[in-house]
Specification:
By secondary structure, the chain is α+β, with helices and mostly antiparallel strands. It has three domains: about 130 residues, SH3 type barrels (Roll); about 110 residues, Nucleotidyltransferase, domain 5, CATH 3.30.420; about 90 residues, Ribosomal protein L30/S12 (60s Ribosomal Protein L30, Chain: A, 2-Layer Sandwich), CATH 3.30.1330. The protein is built from eleven helices and 16 strands. The protein has a seven-stranded antiparallel β-sheet, with helices on one face. A five-stranded mixed β-sheet has the order 10-9-8-11-12. Strands 13-16-14-15 form a four-stranded mixed β-sheet, with helices on both faces. α1 packs antiparallel against α2 and α8 packs parallel to α10. The model has no long low-confidence stretch (mean pLDDT about 90).
Length: about 350
């Protein structure tokens, strides 16, 4: 979750994960005021002949009646009465309308949060703040480093490449030295995006494959028109980082899934799955990581109650997207957990 702006009684938010959408169902409730962009169908009344209805983009303010984690797609559906909107000619005041909030959308919540709601918000912010992407813009002359997190972009360093093709005797050794410096600068990064024009990006990829395979495993390679600061903004504009974060999320889900299957196969008593086993593990306060399919959260009240109780007891929550590859594999379990200690 990202807070874009906050002032007394007003929050502009952008959810970045399924967990964020779930937390929003706990923060937003009936009677709350929400502002966001949507589409309204509009049929011109001054036409003599029948015409097809147009869909017009509008900005609406609604008073929420119902909050739903939508069944068919991963979005938050906020239904309520229209209080205000622009352009006014496309808005029917007093009618019901549903605002759909999807991942990376932004919307405004006009509300003073109570202590519990503030706690929910801070929890999801902590989860988001842990994610940092290190960007390396590389070409034959230099490498430019940037760190991107929920707070924005920070350019951190530059490394010059002294390798010169006019000096063939020393070119290879200087090129390797340059790549070694770049690799050392990102060795503690969580997620690495390496981008730039020309061959430098691909040559660095080959270097990592031969010398630093552990860095290659957490690296993503993308084209950019230049290796300057504008190249970083180009990546953002082309939504490269969103794609990277989604890939990283799926990889993390598969890692969790493999750990679950490994513990089940070992029969070491450190995993549980199914509503009854998970409920028992939560009761014993043994759950370290709770995994649940998004469909279970939306459709099953008992599963939703277990998620809430596990969260209250300090367990980490992971919601699997039933539409991606990891979620489809996790569908066999639907709800499961990794335990801190054996309960039987």
């Amino acid at each position: 979750m990202k807070i874009i702006h906050r002032e007394e009684g007003k929050l502009k938010l952008s959810p970045h994960s399924l967990e964020d959408l779930w937390y929003l169902t706990k923060i937003i409730g009936p009677g709350d005021i929400v502002q966001g962009h949507s589409f309204r169908t509009f049929k011109p009344e001054d036409r003599l002949r029948p015409v097809e209805k147009d869909r017009k983009k509008v900005h609406l303010e609604i008073k929420v009646d119902n909050v739903e984690f939508a069944e068919s797609v991963n979005k938050l559906r906020l239904t309520g009465v229209i209080l205000a909107g622009t352009p006014e000619e496309y808005v029917s005041f007093g009618e019901h309308h549903t605002l759909d909030v999807e991942l990376n959308d932004s919307f405004v919540l006009k509300k003073n949060l109570n202590a519990l709601e503030e706690n929910y918000l801070q929890e999801t912010l902590k989860k988001t703040a842990k994610t940092t992407v290190t960007v390396v813009m590389i070409d034959e002359h230099q490498a430019l480093f940037a760190r991107i997190d929920v707070r924005g972009i920070k350019f951190t360093a530059e490394i010059e490449n002294t390798a010169n093709k006019r000096d063939p005797k020393n070119f290879d050794s200087q090129q390797i030295s340059f790549f070694q410096e770049v690799a050392k600068a990102v060795e503690n990064a969580e997620i690495i995006v390496i981008a730039g024009p020309g061959f430098a990006r691909e040559n660095f990829k080959k270097f990592l494959a031969n010398k630093r395979p552990e860095l290659l495993e957490k690296s993503f390679f993308e084209h950019a028109s230049n290796a300057e600061q504008t190249g970083v903004y180009e990546l953002l504009k082309n939504k490269v980082l969103e794609k990277v974060m989604k890939s990283q999320r799926i990889a993390s889900e598969f890692a969790l899934l493999e750990e679950l299957k490994k513990r089940i196969a070992k029969q070491d008593g450190l995993a549980a799955y199914g509503l009854e086993e998970v409920a028992q593990a939560i009761e014993f306060n043994a759950v370290e990581k709770l995994m649940v399919l998004d469909e279970m959260v939306r459709k099953n009240e008992k599963a939703n109650a277990l998620v809430e109780e596990a969260r209250r007891r300090g367990s980490d929550l992971f919601i699997f997207d039933s539409n991606d590859s990891a979620g489809k594999e996790f569908e066999a379990f639907k709800i499961a957990c990794l335990l801190r200690f054996k309960i039987r």
